[in-house]
Predict the 3D structure of the following.
Amino acid sequence: MVADACSDLVVGSDPPRARGRTDSGFGVVEIIMAVVIMSIIVVPTLTAVITAVRAGTTNTDLAQVQTVLQNAADRVNRAPKSCDYTVYAQAAAQTEGWLGTTTTVVQQHYAPGATAAVPGTWTAQACTGASPTPLLVQMVTITVRSPDGKVSKTVQVVKSDV
């Protein structure tokens, strides 16, 4: 019995195998199951990563739009009374390295009612004529869009010497 056990062991030969067992590698079913399990784990993870990157980009765009919008509102507010404030809003966008066309400016002036009992209205254009008049109340609506057009914010600035 000892001789039989030792006779299988030859230097440099393969180790003895258990009888009836062969190593045939992975079967198709095992490979398919491994791929399915991996996809169950990997697909949601990749989806979460892509969503996080998109949210980060949107937050960055929103912060930049807010910065340009605040800068534009400050520039319009500090500008001397004028009949056109577009250049001030566009300058705020250009300071950020954006095209001036990312800003839109709508200018109106307040036309009081004929009497105190009649309400006034906001009328198109910042001035009633070619130049601002005393006691003129103006409303400048500034809209800033991100360069990719996905984020847009608006603010209204009222200018008055009343």
